[in-house]
Hints:
Elements: H1 2-33, E1 35-40, E2 54-56, E3 63-65, E4 77-84, E5 90-96, E6 105-113, E7 117-121, E8 126-128, H2 134-143, E9 145-146, E10 149-150, E11 152-159, E12 162-170, E13 173-174, H3 175-188
Antiparallel strand pairs: 1-11, 2-8, 3-7, 4-5, 4-6, 6-7, 9-10, 11-12, 12-13
Amino acid sequence: MNRLLGLALALLFLLQLAVPAGMIAGREITLRRGELFRFRTAPVDPYDPFRGRFVALNLEQAQAPRPAGVELSYRQKVFALLAVDEAGFAYCSGIDTERPAAGHYLVARIASLDQEQVRLQLPFDRYYAEEDLAPEIERAYRAHSRRDKQEAFITVRVRQGRGVLEELYIEDLPVGDYLRRQAVVDNTE
Length: 189
């Protein structure tokens, strides 16, 4: 009996390690092998102090035309079909309720819908940062993500419906490089 209990506990322990390891492996495989897409960001709502140390992102193209004759509901899982515009930025060209056989897509949820458009909740709406850098990144992001000045975007790797945020860019620079450049400018003034 003790041997059986020991084996059961060992299997439970291995299962507990396998779940997070599988999640980490899936994210890393997507970052290494996924197709690269750039998404424009849009102005973001005021800072929410309860969410912690990350930058809340609002994606400009997180909406798609509502398909005719398809019953949709709030929070429903859908597949957002991806396309790239002439400037090289990704957008959702449509949605499907069944997994597409070909092309690039993201698994998403419906955030809201009306007669013509479906607003999507995409799997990357937060850019996590080091505790001490997050306020600086938030300020830079807000300054460059206004209606009159949209110079921020993110790169996302997409593979088999999974999207992993790779980097936040401000003025065509990765946010870390942008902050270092601003520190140099501030120190020379």
